[in-house]
User: Fold this.
Amino acid sequence: MLANLLKTALGRLRFIAFLEGTSLLILLGIAMPLKYWAGYPQPVRFVGMAHGVLFILYVVLLVQVVFEYSWGWKKFFLGLFASVIPFGTFYADAKIFKEPNQDSL
Assistant:
């Protein structure tokens, strides 16, 4: 199933959106509390770096999908906004990042 998902630009975006959203939740829910409440800053360095790389990859893939699928500005900005709020990419995957209807081809 994952191999099929990674064959299209939209599938790659959905996969990276899941990883990016998960990394944001780990950063905010685990790494940041460890840094500020337990005095253990190392997880923020590693999770923050991973999240940053995934965020950049997410934006690049979002731009690719916008051009490839001829999405409008609204979908682009909704996808971009979804990446900066917790659980946003999961919502975007369910509501915005749908495969185009194959019946219309």
Remarks:
- The helical segments are 2-5, 9-38, 42-68, 73-82, 88-95.
